[in-house]
Amino acid sequence: MASPLIPIFLSLTLVFAIPQPSLAQASVTEVAAGDTPWRSPTDEPRVGPASGSLVIVGGALRDGAIIDRFLELAGGPDAPIVVIPTAEGGATYNESYAGLRQFRARGATRLRVLHTTDRGEADSEEFIRALREARGVWFSGGRQWRLADAYLGTRVEAELWALLGRGGVIGGTSAGASIQGSYLVRGDTRTNTIMMGDHEVGFGFLKNTAIDQHLLRRNRQFDLVEVLEAHPDLLGIGLDENTAIVVQGDEVEVIGASYVAIYDRSGEWDPRRPFFLLAPGERLDLRSRKPIRPGRREVATPAGESH
User: Fold this and answer.
1) Position 53 in a domain
2) How many domains does the chain have?
3) What's the pLDDT at 269?
4) How far, rounded to the nearest angstrom, does the alpha carbon of residue 74 sit from its chain's CA centroid?
């Protein structure tokens, strides 16, 4: 059952519908739409990947348009896609894996399931062959430390970077979102309520970041604060359910149904207002850490009521 605080918190976020500073960080400086581009095409990204794309989802994915964007970035529904369900914790998976349904429902035709908990197998030529042919890789939800244990520092990780290098896309939901940051939140093997646990290293596709998920639905909007207090150089990104960020270089776009929270201690830090929110259609410059709000629109609350 959703926390009774969530509708109250979401109702407060409706201040975005009127022209005033962000609810969570009134001192933030915004970049107006149409201003100077975020970066020169010749500049190397400081946070995002130098090439390729990321689709990072806050869990409970229901919006088919998010899958559509992932497939589009991979090259279309006929592009070869690898789905990695390792975070779920099952012993084996095959092509009847239920997680493929959402991709098939959006027209995907070339799907391959890849899973192991054996790091030796993750380093084998046979195992990584599918990754070399892929245009997109998707990480399912579960526990993110399982992905770290199985693949971090193996040839699988090297092939993921190679995929981005040739312009492919990496996506993931819930645990598959958090693993894409450099600092791994909720990586403790005992419980997912520990923010800084026994696994603290992610793949780092987004450098110097910590990514949380299920943000508003599970009343987690203040959980990243302790991480930023311990590691003030990090950029915190919290995604609500059925909501995603699409990352290309240092450019972020919010898509889906709800909000993304941004936590930044590089400027003035007010512990009472530790984050600001981005709605669908709004953007973030990862280099300057400033939001870009080309327009404002109403979004539905998790309960389904429109405001």
Assistant:
1) yes
2) 1
3) 87
4) 17
The answer to whether residue 299 is domain-embedded is no
Residues 177, 145, 199: CA angle, nearest 5 degrees: 110
Tell me the residue range of the domain where 180 lies: 5-32+45-292
pLDDT at 249 exceeding the cut of 70 = yes
Token code pair at residue 288? 């300057």
Question: Does residue 123 belong to any structural domain of this protein?
Answer: yes
Res 295: pLDDT: 58
Pairing of strands 206-212, 181-183: parallel
Give, rounded to a whole angstrom, the gap between the first and last alpha carbons of the chain.
21
Q: Compute the distance between CA of residue 236 and CA of residue 248 in angstroms, rounded to an integer.
A: 18
Question: Residue 282 above 80 pLDDT?
Answer: yes
Band of pLDDT at residue 296, cut at 50, 70 and 90: low
Exposure string (b/e) for 235-263, b if CB count within 10 Å is 16 or more?
bbbbbbbbbbbbbbbbbbbbbbbbbbbbb
For residue 30, give both structure tokens. 């915004």
Looking at residue 37, what is its pLDDT?
36
pLDDT band at residue 104, thresholds of 50, 70 and 90? very high
What whole-number distance in Å separates Cα of residue 86 and Cα of residue 145? 10
What is the CATH number for 66? 3.40.50.880
pLDDT category at 298 given cuts 50, 70, 90 is: very low
pTM, 2 dp: 0.84
Q: Which two tokens stand for residue 66?
A: 């998010």
Q: Is residue 306 in a domain?
A: no
Segment 125-133 mean pLDDT: 98
